[in-house]
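Sequence in, structure out.
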Amino acid sequence: MNRRPVVSTRISSIGWEESEEGSGSGTMEVEFRSGHIYRYAAVPVNEYQAFLGASSPGRYLESNIIDRYEHTKVR
């Protein structure tokens, strides 16, 4: 998955890949500056775009992503 760099003290990059069903939702990856990578399932493309454009990606992650979408640690 290709990730795009973001300006954040905690997050290095964010990526999104549409599901095979073409439903407008997909898998999102968040790479942290620590090197850890998490994948979030069934994230709508508009949520990814809002996250990518947030003035504080770390706060956006805490407020809108972590408790709403199932996630797994990749690395």
